[in-house]
Amino acid sequence: MIENISKYEITRDVNFDFTIFIPTWNNLGFILNCLDSIKKNSMLKIQPIVIINDGKDGTLDWFLNQNEFDYIHSIENIGICYALNIARSLVKSDYIIYANDDMYFLPDWDKNLLLEIQKIGNKAFMLSSTMIEPDDTGNKCISLGNYGKTLADFQEKRLMSEYQQYFRTDWKGSTWPPNVVHRDVWDLVGGFSVEFSPGMYSDPDFSMKLYQAGVRHFKGVGNSLVYHFGSKSTKRVKKNKGRNTFLMKWGMTANHFSKVYLQTGSPWDEKGVKVSENYASKMINTLKRMLGALE
Questions:
Q1: Phi, psi at 202, each rounded to 5°
Q2: Does domain 2-294 have CATH number 3.90.550.10?
Q3: Residues 11-57: tens digit of each pLDDT
């Protein structure tokens, strides 16, 4: 695998405020739209690092002919976990963000994240921006708004005039991208766990590793917004059995961790998460772990 991966360090500035890892897999239109939104709507100095999987749709050619963005190319699709980890060596800021290529960053997204980080005053946090999505999937952490599901029907102008109506109260349970951690925290837990390749359930696993390292500040920032078209790559990939991997690794389901430990989607308060496991929930998780071992 490693012989098929090449790094291209283009930027020379070392004073970025945020670094954004953006894996992409033959999604040229979406990655260009994502990068364009970062350029137009960011207030701070942002270092995108694009990880190109395959890239035969024209993505690799486009990046080979530009001199603005750092990028990594893998001949084969190495998935999310390996992609994010290989990008770490190019980071030139204190803060690492992971985002999807089918996201459109809205004005002040970065300023509001940095203001929140400054209020926290330490490195023990994980923050997420709030996604606006076109479909109601039952996710309590998103705001519902349909501005298009493809680039062809993307209503950018209307979104830019209306996005502020989607500001919401901050919420508990930061897990999903775009999320941000300090690079020292990233290094402490070793980035993303490759046993979850190509990536299903790697997000809650990363949050659990942070939790085990002492992080308790998992917060979704309600006025840092991105529009998310919706899993344009994960719908094509052959999925791993991440649910079972998480269960066997941590002794509980990812859903249990999200509901009981992170209290995902609940309104944010400064009391922190106080976990109180009861005997019944422990027994249920033990039973699920035993059943998972049989699959």
A1: -70, -25
A2: yes
A3: 998 899 999 999 999 999 999 999 999 999 999 999 999 999 999 99
